[in-house]
């Protein structure tokens, strides 16, 4: 059993399976857009923190992860840094929602590697931001609701 899976089970609840929307605070989304533009052409990545309400994941904060590795085509996180950021959010009353990362010069579609990681962490949301050299961004959010489920695209809205 992966660390990601265990943390997800500890920090979330059964409403995870019912959410079909990702509602992101505009300040959090501005932070994400600035982060992905500043790291271009390398991939940027970070955590999404918030809470659950009805059929929605509500993202109140996005926090960049800086200690991992990134290139134009992939990234890997430092799990100690990830856990520190998640637990700091929990201490502030927030839940772990998932991850964001960028795809430089590419559409915001999950790569094979993204899907493989999502399968290991059911219930985790992945917000993917395509970013181009002119600063243009496109975004989409995905989750695999539970073990044995397929990938689901979430409706993204702003708060």
Rounded average pLDDT: 89
Low-confidence stretches: 12-17
What is the CATH first-level class name? Alpha Beta
Largest sheet: 7 strands, mixed, barrel
Find the CATH superfamily: Cytidine Deaminase, domain 2
Calculate the terminal CA-CA distance, rounded to whole Å: 35 Å
The total strand number stands at 9
Q: What Rg, in angstroms, do the CA atoms define?
A: 14 Å
Description:
With 159 residues, this protein is of the alpha/beta class. It has a single domain, classed as Cytidine Deaminase, domain 2. The strands form 2 sheets. The protein has a 7-stranded mixed barrel. Helix 4 links the parallel strand 6 and strand 7.
Short summary of the structure?
The protein is of the alpha/beta class and 159 residues long. The chain has helices at 3-11, 26-39, 79-91, 112-120; strands at 21-24, 45-53, 56-64, 69-70, 75-76, 95-104, 125-131, 137-143, 152-158. Residues 12-17 have low confidence and may be disordered.
Describe the secondary structure blueprint for this structure.
Elements: H1 3-11, E1 21-24, H2 26-39, E2 45-53, E3 56-64, E4 69-70, E5 75-76, H3 79-91, E6 95-104, H4 112-120, E7 125-131, E8 137-143, E9 152-158
Parallel strand pairs: 1-3, 1-9, 6-7
Antiparallel strand pairs: 2-3, 2-6, 4-5, 7-8, 8-9
Key words describing this protein structure:
159 residues; alpha/beta; Cytidine Deaminase, domain 2; seven-stranded mixed β-barrel; two-stranded antiparallel sheet; 36% strand
């Amino acid at each position: 059993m992966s660390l990601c899976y265990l943390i997800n089970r500890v920090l979330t609840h059964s409403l995870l399976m019912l959410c079909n929307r990702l509602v992101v605070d505009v300040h959090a989304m501005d932070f994400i857009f600035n982060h992905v533009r500043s790291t271009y052409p390398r991939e940027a990545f970070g955590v999404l923190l918030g809470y659950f309400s009805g059929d929605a994941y509500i993202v109140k904060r996005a926090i960049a992860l800086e200690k991992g590795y990134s290139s134009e085509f992939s990234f890997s996180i430092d799990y100690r840094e990830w856990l520190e950021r998640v637990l700091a959010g929990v201490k502030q009353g927030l839940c772990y929602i998932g991850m964001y990362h960028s795809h430089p010069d590419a559409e915001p579609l999950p790569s094979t590697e993204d899907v493989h990681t999502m399968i290991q962490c059911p219930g985790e949301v992945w917000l993917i931001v395509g970013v181009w050299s002119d600063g243009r961004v496109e975004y989409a959010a995905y989750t695999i609701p539970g073990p044995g489920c397929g990938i689901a695209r979430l409706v993204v809205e702003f708060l």
